[in-house]
Amino acid sequence: MAQIRLERPTYQSINYGGGLFSQTGASTPIQDTTDQLSLIDGGVGTLSVPAFGFNVGDTFNAYMSGILSANNGNTLDIHIQTTSGVVLADSLPIIMRNATDLPWRLQLTFVIWATGGAGVASILTSGTFEYQENAADKFNAYPIRYNNNTTFDTTTSNTLDILAQWNVASVTNSIQSYIFVLNKIYG
User: Fold this and answer.
1) pLDDT digits (tens, 9 = 90+) for 106-119
2) 20 to 30 A from 86, CA-CA: which of 13, 67, 134, 136?
3) If you ran DSSP here, which 8-state letter would residue 135 be given?
4) Which residues, listed in sequence order, are joined to residue 132 by a DSSP beta bridge?
């Protein structure tokens, strides 16, 4: 009879590649203000693509999550844009339900459809913003989709930013990110 020899498997770190940025600390809470402020804190890697650095088909995934509190009926708007103000997507005002220190997440995919100057370049952004409300631990999901083919420009440097804005300044309206990761998944 043949003898079967079992060996303990060895594990090694696998580098899947494509990692561009990973946030390494909690963002400053956006609280008690109606100012549009960044949800991104410091980290490792880069959020910038240099001039002429995009190619048609380049595809990126972004994942962000954290904790929020909200007053029933107030609105929260998530803005995805470059640091120079070029809009990549916008959640539009989300009418919030009561939430107290509950999780939220934002998942986005960006695809470069065309390269060139403003009016020629095109980027499609699609994703979802979700948060948990107090009532029955219910999750609410809001789709995000936007094609910028008017002001997006690949002939200049582009740096990603994700901002949040409340319509009412209140100490009980607060959003903060703990995790933000940007990966290039194609191109």
Assistant:
1) 999 999 999 999 99
2) 67
3) G
4) 139
